[in-house]
Amino acid sequence: MEKLSRKDTIRRIMSYISRYRLTAVMSLLFAVLNVASGLYVPILVGEAIDCIVYGQTDYARLISILLRAVLSTFVSAISLWCMNELNNKLTYSIVRDIRNEAFARLHVLPFSYLDSHPFGTILSRIIADVDQFADGLLMGFTQLFTGVMTILITLGFMFSMNPLITLIVIFVTPMSLFVARFISTHTYDMFGIQSGVRGEQTGLIDEMIGNEKTVKAFSYENRAVERFDEINSRLEKASLKAVFYSSLTNPGTRFVNSIVYAMVALTGALNVLTGGMSVGILASFLSYANQYTKPFNEISGVLTELQNAFACAGRVFELIDEKEESGDPGLPALAGYGDKAGGELKNEITGNVKCDHVAFSYNKNSELIKDLNIDVKPGEHVAIVGPTGCGKTTIINLLMRFYDADKGRITVDGTDIMSVTRKSLRNSYGMVLQDTWLRHGTIRDNIKMGRDIPDEEMIKAAKEVHAHSFIRRLDKGYDTVIGEEGGSLSQGQKQLLCISRVMLSLPPMLILDEATSSIDTRTELKIQDAFLKMMKGRTSFIVAHRLSTIKNADLILVMKAGNIIEQGSHEELLKRRGFYYELYNSQFA
Questions:
Q1: Running DSSP on this structure, what letter comes out for residue 408?
Q2: Which of 183, 308, 429, 490 could form a disulfide bond with 191, CB atoms 3.0-4.6 angstroms apart?
Q3: How far apart are CA 305 and CA 137, in angstroms?
Q4: How many CB atoms lie within 10 A of CB 475?
Q5: How many Å apart are CA 224 and CA 551, to the nearest integer?
């Protein structure tokens, strides 16, 4: 995905703002009312001064002026409150929409993107970058609107009082805009670098926290600290550079504004001496000169924040614009994995799975699976064995359409899996993996997974996989709440819960990927009996390193370097004294 330019980013932001046109217009109107009522006060103050300085003081007129000033201040305060309320609603509505789109995009991104990007970096874009964008956008609405309105309305009042001095102010002011624009343009890339390094840091923190036991087990703490220090150092330099250059904006514009104020004061004083204006008008003019230059200081700060906001928004938009996973047939790609339209696997699936000249590689420069041909009959139990990295789990990814084959076709009961919805396909499989899938909630919730199933069937499934005994010993049994990823349960207990979940659903096809790797040998023998009951009449794919667990498989596929080099039953493969024979003897010699 190409990096978005600043213009493209701003255009995208404006498209989100356009969804809330009424709120934006109302905010703008209240900004005009706030500024106009606030800037009317200096005129009243000038009239009050003239009322006192020239001739006898007219107290009745002075009180009238003061009452109007109080009323104008009150109107300004109320309109400011309304404007801020609308700005908050507008900003966080846009932020909500962006987060919704970013999160929805995660569900349609291909696994290749998720596998190649650290989770922490993705989290940083959706959480930290969107928060930074919200801060900048809110400041932009709150101060940029009022700043621009203040400048325009102030010029109108100043023109009505003295056009000559106003023209002098207008000719000097562009210097302030030039300084602010020059600095802000050069800080955009700096804030982009800062956001990128911050995402890298978030990714490292997420990785270290998520794998804390592994870090400690391998004494990786010092290396982790060194990596963090290196990234933190780069973040410090990037942040200092971005903040330093952006902080030059305010002093630069203040210097120009001070020159403007001094010129107004000098020219106005000469006009008073020559009778060109009154003292009250000069006081109003000086107040307007200060009011006129003040927004430039605020706008310069806003521009700095907006550069940071645009850089963060650009990173989020890059995520939203990532190429999505190929759509289901008859369904728009963003519709996800719905049931409506598109192909569906028929209800009565026999489980005839066939791979015909399938080729696939994660990296196009390095081949993995070159020419895979298998024909699994309904109800067969197929074991896939081989050394690490030979493509065992890759076959499972292809069967489930986590990845799509580069060449060839995979069929289920004669139906090409590319012509059916992913949801239909995946509902036909039950999976038990080496990595457990458990979430915060009760034991009951983790086994049922939101399905309306009687407790009796749930307990029966747990008993069949020998999970009921340890669940019963927990404080609240099936109502015991476990933390994320299983909390304090042992790895074996977590695995038993996952096996119970599949036992409860009993789909027509099963995938067991190192399903008993975390279970002791005695319990494993019991679970093997449960698996045999569960697999009876169901097509099953078993990935295993412990060859003792697949002796009873109908067909064993021996893989090496992405190819099936041997296939047959356990006894047949041992008689051939080939690669499988070597693998088996390496474990049991």
A1: E
A2: 308
A3: 8
A4: 7
A5: 43
The confidence score (pLDDT) of residue 81 equals 92
DSSP 8-class letter at 481: E
3-state helix, strand, coil split of the chain in percent (to 5) is 65, 10, 25
Strands 539-543, 509-513: pairing kind: parallel
Q: How far is CA 392 from CA 173, 239, 249, in A?
A: 70, 45, 59
What pLDDT is stored for residue 329 in this prediction?
58
Q: Are 309 and 133 in contact (CB under 8 A)?
A: yes
Both tokens assigned to 266:
């000098």
Residues in the chain: 589
Name the superfamily (CATH) of residues 6-320: ABC transporter type 1, transmembrane domain (1.20.1560.10)
Is residue 374 within 8 Å of residue 362, measured between CB atoms?
no
Q: Topology of domain 380-588, per CATH? A: Rossmann fold (3.40.50)
Q: What is the pLDDT of residues 312-346, one digit of tens each?
A: 888 888 888 888 776 665 543 323 333 444 455 55
- What are the tokens at 514? 């190192």
CA dist., res. 414 & res. 399, Å (int): 14
Condensed to tens digits (0 to 9), the pLDDT of residues 525-547 reads 766 776 777 777 888 888 877 77
**Cβ atoms within 10 Å of 457's Cβ, excluding its own:** 13
DSSP assignment string, 424-448: HHHTTEEEE-SS----SEEHHHHHH
- Going 512 to 515 to 521 to 522, the CA torsion angle's sign is negative
- 10 Å Cβ neighbour count for 21? 9
**Which DSSP category does 485 fall into?**
G
β strands within 244-352, DSSP E: none
**Kind and range of the H or E element at 588?**
helix 579-588
| End-to-end Cα distance, the chain | 52
Q: Which residues of 492-515 are buried (b: 16+ CB within 10 A; e: fewer)?
A: bbbbbbbbbbbbbeebbbbbbbbb
> 98: buried, middle or exposed (CB in 10 Å: 19+, 13-18, 0-12)?
buried
Nearest to 359 by CA among 351, 369, 349, 350: 369
Q: What is the 3-state secondary structure (H, E, C) of 91-141?
A: HHHHHHHHHHHHHHHHCCCCHHHHHHCCHHHHHHHHHHHHHHHHHHHHHHH
Predicted pLDDT at 332: 38
- Structure confidence by residue, pLDDT tens digits, 58-84: 777 778 888 888 898 899 899 989 988
Element (H, E) at 385: strand 381-385
- Every domain of the chain with CATH number 1.20.1560.10 lies at 6-320
Listed in order, the ranges of the chain carrying CATH 3.40.50.300 are 380-588
**Structure tokens of 56?**
């006898």
- Measured in degrees and rounded to the nearest 5, phi and psi for residue 44 equal -65, -40
Please check whether residue 515 is in contact with residue 534, taking contact to mean a CB–CB distance below 8 angstroms. no
- Predicted model pTM: 0.65
What tokens were used for 99? 């987060």
Lowest mean pLDDT among 16-30, 181-195, 235-249: 181-195
Q: Which amino acid is at 131?
A: D
